[in-house]
Each structure stands twice: as structure tokens, then as C-alpha cells.
Write a structure and sequence with these properties.
This protein has a single domain, classed as Aldolase class I (TIM Barrel, Alpha-Beta Barrel). The protein is 42% helix and 17% strand. It has eleven helices and ten strands. Strand 6 and strand 7 (164-165) form a beta hairpin. Helix 2 (38-50) packs parallel to helix 4 and helix 2 (38-50) packs parallel to helix 11. The mean pLDDT is 95. It is an enzyme of class 4 (lyase).
């Protein structure tokens, strides 16, 4: 997807919401387990209920891979459903891949060509040649792990060299890579106090912001410190939306949660 199309959807819907499809069979409504493909049935209902209030969907591939072949088939059906019926939605494979160059090329083909996602999350630890294969695909986007919201992020990301943190060095270095204009970055909402300095390094890049909602991140602080002239944010909510109810009304409750978040975001979108 061209980035301008994403920006147009943000303006049209007054939303920067990304709905995370992290499907745990132990948490979905029990009546769905009678279906041949309960994961896809759950996703389909959530997509139908929330698509008017969001601009992106983000399946976390671990939840599908954990179910073996059936899970991978459900992921394929989900992305095919989105691309067929809601092609305006930006799609993210939250896979956190990253390996030596030829392996990264295979990962990129898997998510960009075979599954036809618009983007994939990638770990930067192995450096330039592990990321550039993802960046070689036109109108596809690589979302680099920048500053994450988990507690263990402080183990490495906040190591300091001279007067900058390691995560800042990673952000700066990545901007020198080939086709770096196709990079986006994961920045945790619980680290919103760093967003101003991050924006000075990445003034034009889109940031994927997990951690608003269940993890306690502040939507107001994220928007205040992270938005740029092109909005520049995709704000993810997973559990707070998709598990708003585990009863027959799960889709309607998810819709209400998505609508409430969209209304909050609309206050920050001109």
C-alpha cells in the first residue's frame, strides 16, 4: 500500500486505530469452538465489527503458528478476507522476523508475496543486511522494533554510549539503509515520554504504537508527543478490543470499544 492511501484513510475515518488480532482459543467465546475454523470465524466477526473505526489490522503470527497448520491456514484466510473485502485497510504481519540476508529474503517473500501483507515487523539486532531484503519490495513497509513497551526493554535498549541510548543509535543508523523511506518503527506507548526525542530523529516516519489500553499507555500523551504533519501514528489495541466480551455479544462489545477509541483519536485529527 502506498503511504498516501493510509494517510487518506486516517483523514477519512478520523482514526489512527490498529486492531490487533491476537487470537487465543482459550479466550474466544466458547460457541465459536464448534466451527471448523474458530480462529477465522472470530477474526471475521471482529473485522466486520471494527473496520469502520480503524485503519489497520495486525495479526500477531505467534498466535497462529502455535496452532500448527490450522493456525497458519486461519492466518491465510484472514489476510485474504481483508485484502478482498477491505483492501483500504493497512495490514501488518506482527512476526518480528530478522536473520541473515538470504533467510530474511525468504521471510519477506512469505509475508509480502505469499500472504500479501502490507507490512511486517522486523527485529534490527543483526543489522543492515538482515533488514534490507524486506525493504526491496515496492509499496511494502518494514516496521522495525525501535523502543518496546515490555519491562525487559531496559536490558539493552537503554544502554548508553556517550550521550545517546542504544535504541536512538539504532533509529539513526537505520535511516542510512537502502530504501529506508519504507521503514516504520515500533515505539511502545508506555515509553511516550521519549516520543519527542524520537520524532527529532524520525520526523517523517510512521510509528506503530502498541500498549494503549491493556498495558496502560496514554493515548493523549502519545498523540501530543508523537504526531507529525502526516499524523504519523498507528495506535494498536488488541486485548482491550477483541476480548471486550467472551459471550455471544463479543463482536458488538468490540465495536463499542473501537468506536470509543476512534472518538478519542478524532480529537487530535484535523
Amino acid at each position: 500500500m502506498e503511504i498516501q492511501k493510509l494517510i487518506q484513510q486516517i483523514e477519512k475515518k478520523k482514526s489512527m486505530l490498529c486492531v490487533g488480532l491476537d487470537v487465543d482459543l482459550e479466550k474466544i467465546p466458547k460457541h465459536l469452538l464448534d466451527h471448523e475454523d474458530p480462529i477465522f470465524e472470530f477474526n471475521k466477526a471482529i473485522i466486520e465489527a471494527t473496520q469502520e473505526f480503524c485503519v489497520a489490522f495486525k495479526p500477531n503470527t505467534a498466535f497462529y503458528e502455535a496452532q500448527g497448520l490450522k493456525g497458519w491456514a486461519a492466518l491465510k484466510k484472514t489476510i485474504d478476507y481483508l485484502n478482498t473485502f477491505y483492501p483500504e485497510q493497512f495490514t501488518i504481519a506482527d512476526a518480528k522476523r530478522g536473520d541473515i540476508g538470504n533467510t530474511s529474503s525468504m521471510y519477506a517473500k512469505a509475508f509480502f508475496k505469499n500472504l500479501n501483507f502490507d507490512s511486517v515487523t522486523v527485529a534490527p539486532y543483526m543489522g543492515r543486511d538482515s533488514v534490507e531484503p524486506f525493504l526491496s519490495f515496492n509499496d511494502k513497509h518494514t516496521i522495525l522494533l525501535g523502543l518496546t513497551s515490555n519491562q525487559g526493554s531496559e536490558d539493552f535498549q537503554f544502554l548508553k554510549s556517550e550521550d545517546e541510548f542504544l535504541f536512538e543509535n539504532v533509529l539513526k543508523k537505520s535511516q542510512t539503509w537502502e530504501n529506508s523511506q519504507q521503514l516504520m518503527y515500533v515505539i511502545g506507548a508506555t515509553k511516550a515520554d521519549h516520543l519527542k526525542s524520537i520524532r527529532s530523529i524520525l520526523p517523517n516516519s510512521f510509528l506503530l504504537i502498541p500498549g494503549v489500553g491493556a498495558q496502560g499507555g496514554s493515548l493523549k500523551e502519545v498523540c501530543k508527543n508523537g504526531m507529525n504533519s502526516s499524523y504519523g501514528l498507528l495506535i494498536n489495541s488488541s486485548r482491550g478490543i477483541i476480548y471486550a466480551s467472551n459471550q455471544n455479544d463479543f463482536a458488538e462489545k468490540a465495536k463499542l470499544k473501537a468506536k470509543a477509541l476512534q472518538k478519542e483519536m478524532a480529537l487530535f485529527i484535523n
